[in-house]
Design brief:
- This protein is mostly helical.
- It has a domain of about 60 residues.
- The protein is about 70% helix and about 0% strand.
- It is rod-shaped and about 85 Å long.
Length: about 90
């Protein structure tokens, strides 16, 4: 029976340098690196859907302000609307 202090057998490293592989093994390695499984495809789809949902949420929240930054007429209308809302709030408070 082996004791715990006995030296363990030496295991090969997880990554093998390319110079130790035969040309056929190197070719198979390159092909393996190009493989996308179903989990990878689902991850990519999730990232795309999440990005679209995030952009939609930002535009829904700040859309009027974003449009107003690029349009002088919209900027003036937004400013007038804010002043009217502030005046109405002051009238309700006073």
């Amino acid at each position: 029976m082996a004791d715990w202090h006995v030296v363990r057998e030496r295991r090969p490293p997880h990554r093998v340098a390319a110079r130790h592989l035969t040309p056929e093994q190197q070719e198979n390695t390159v092909q393996t690196l190009g493989y996308l499984d179903a989990g990878t495809g689902s991850l990519i789809a999730s990232v795309i859907v999440g990005g679209v949902a995030g952009i939609a949420a930002v535009f829904k929240t700040f859309g009027r302000n974003i449009v107003a930054m690029f349009s002088p007429s919209k900027r003036a209308a937004l400013k007038a609307e804010r002043e009217a809302a502030a005046a109405a709030a002051a009238a309700d408070a006073g």
